[in-house]
């Protein structure tokens, strides 16, 4: 069997090699011709799998029976077009949700440090409380922040849970985190959910983060507000028009990264493993590999904290030992200068430096440091 995989999928050969010949193609170059003879296609989010691609693939002699995306988001997949052709489909729900939460916590801590404040005084509004948003909600609440959620589909399905309307949340929050999927129609559409009117209404000093999908936020309206008054702090990981993003907007935001919030090795491997398992089930083969077989030991597995550090300084130190979001912000800025915006955006992602999740680090501390343990555990570390 011939399996076409996005070249940016770790452990692809090891996992999908169990099905047959694995051919790696850069995600943006997967077209009908490259699918000639293929029975399985494994992508990430940058390959649009729609009727046009499937028709071109059929003309080139593909006999697709399985399509999998090793990502949480599915807006790049026309699932109706697959189902019409009887092609099995699977995505990887939740695979990199922990990594996105690490990214957000790391970014909030950096903004607070730059302002000389602490994040535990902030009121955080989370828009989209699914695998990512709900984990973020729990982590931030455990860290002592005041958080509220907006999720109309969940509000309808779970009348016992407390959710807030978007406008109410925007008024209340001084930090707004967007974690919605891109949904283009229907009662809960998210395209430009944060439109010009809502962006203009944000109170000065609000911190705005988007790690969902770029099209959920009107980037032109945000650029105009930042250019006019510069009174918001912004963290953008996702953008309209990726990879050729608005360079003017990139320069104006405080933390600008190239859609890597979920790019921990753990998150990527979890995605690969979930799709490997789905593909094996589709072809009625045994699932032999687990995440433990794929994930190497982390380069830093244990850290011993000395005495006397204030709690949030200790936390920042542990976070930076595992992941420092400034690396990705600086990396994108450098790549944009060296290679131009679109190529630079993809170059940083294709050659992404190793990153592990907070949970891979065990923090040790002496008896007098025990009071730090709850904070570190709340942030996602293991302590002993
Ligand atoms: N920046 C990155 O690297 C990553 C981005 N993502 C994006 O984040 C999105 C969310 O991920 P998950 O939480 O895992 O997905 P999920 O499907 O578990 O949750 C999405 C949540 O959004 C809610 N929602 C839908 N429409 C809404 C609306 N109009 N307003 C508010 N909430 C709404 C849903 O009810 C659901 O609870 C993904 O669809 C993907 O597009 C995911 C992983 C990595
Ligand atoms: O899982 C998702 O959804 C994401 O947004 C991915 O983390 C994005 O990764 P790529 O598909 O861009 O490699």
From TrEMBL:
Pfam families: 2-Hacid_dh, 2-Hacid_dh_C, DUF3410
Annotated ranges, domain D-isomer specific 2-hydroxyacid dehydrogenase catalytic: 34-262
Catalytic activity annotation: 4-phospho-D-erythronate + NAD(+) = (R)-3-hydroxy-2-oxo-4-phosphooxybutanoate + NADH + H(+)
UniProt-listed SUPFAM superfamilies: Formate/glycerate dehydrogenase catalytic domain-like, NAD(P)-binding Rossmann-fold domains
Localisation per UniProt entry: Cytoplasm
InterPro entries given in the database record: D-isomer_2-hydroxyacid_DH, D-isomer_2_OHA_DH_cat_dom, D-isomer_DH_NAD-bd, Erythronate-4-P_DHase, Erythronate-4-P_DHase_dimer, NAD(P)-bd_dom_sf, PdxB_dimer_sf
Active-site residues per Swiss-Prot or TrEMBL entry: 213, 242, 259 (proton donor)
One BP annotation, GO: pyridoxine biosynthetic process
Its job: Catalyzes the oxidation of erythronate-4-phosphate to 3-hydroxy-2-oxo-4-phosphonooxybutanoate.
Oligomeric form and interacting partners: Homodimer.
NCBIfam families assigned: PRK00257.1
Protein name (database record): Erythronate-4-phosphate dehydrogenase
């Amino acid at each position: 069997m011939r399996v076409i995989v996005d070249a940016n999928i770790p452990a692809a050969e090891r996992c999908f090699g169990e099905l047959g010949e694995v051919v790696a193609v850069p995600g943006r170059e997967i077209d009908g011709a490259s699918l000639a003879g293929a029975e399985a296609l494994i992508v990430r989010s940058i390959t649009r799998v729609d009727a046009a691609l499937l028709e071109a693939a059929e003309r080139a002699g593909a006999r697709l029976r399985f399509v999998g995306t090793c990502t949480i988001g599915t807006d790049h997949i026309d699932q109706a077009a697959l189902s019409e052709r009887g092609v099995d489909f699977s995505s990887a729900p939740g695979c990199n949700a922990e990594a996105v939460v690490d990214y957000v916590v790391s970014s909030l801590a950096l903004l607070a440090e730059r302002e000389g404040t602490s994040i535990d005084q902030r009121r955080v509004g989370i828009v989209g409380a699914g695998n990512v948003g709900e984990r973020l909600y729990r982590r931030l609440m455990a860290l002592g922040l005041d958080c509220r959620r907006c999720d109309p589909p969940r509000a309808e399905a779970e009348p016992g849970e407390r959710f807030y309307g978007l406008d109410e949340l925007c008024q209340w929050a001084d930090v707004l985190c967007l974690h919605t999927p891109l949904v283009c129609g229907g009662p809960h559409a998210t395209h430009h959910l944060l439109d010009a009117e809502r962006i203009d209404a944000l109170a000065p000093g609000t911190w705005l983060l988007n790690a969902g999908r770029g099209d959920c936020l009107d980037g032109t309206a945000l650029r105009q507000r930042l250019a006019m008054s510069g009174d918001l702090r912004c963290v953008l990981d996702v953008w309209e028009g990726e990879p050729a993003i608005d360079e003017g907007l990139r320069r104006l935001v405080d933390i600008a990264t190239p859609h890597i919030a979920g790019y921990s090795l753990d998150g990527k491997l979890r995605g690969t493993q979930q799709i490997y398992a789905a593909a094996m089930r589709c072809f009625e083969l045994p699932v032999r590999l687990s995440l433990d077989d794929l994930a190497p030991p982390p380069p830093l597995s244990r850290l011993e904290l000395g005495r006397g550090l204030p709690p949030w300084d200790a936390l920042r130190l542990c976070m930076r030992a595992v992941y420092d979001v400034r690396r990705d912000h600086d990396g994108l800025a450098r790549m944009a200068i060296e290679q131009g915006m679109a190529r630079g955006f993809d170059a940083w992602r294709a050659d992404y430096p190793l990153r592990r999740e907070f949970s891979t680090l065990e923090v040790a501390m002496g008896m007098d440091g025990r009071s730090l343990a709850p904070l570190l555990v709340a942030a996602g570390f293991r302590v002993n």
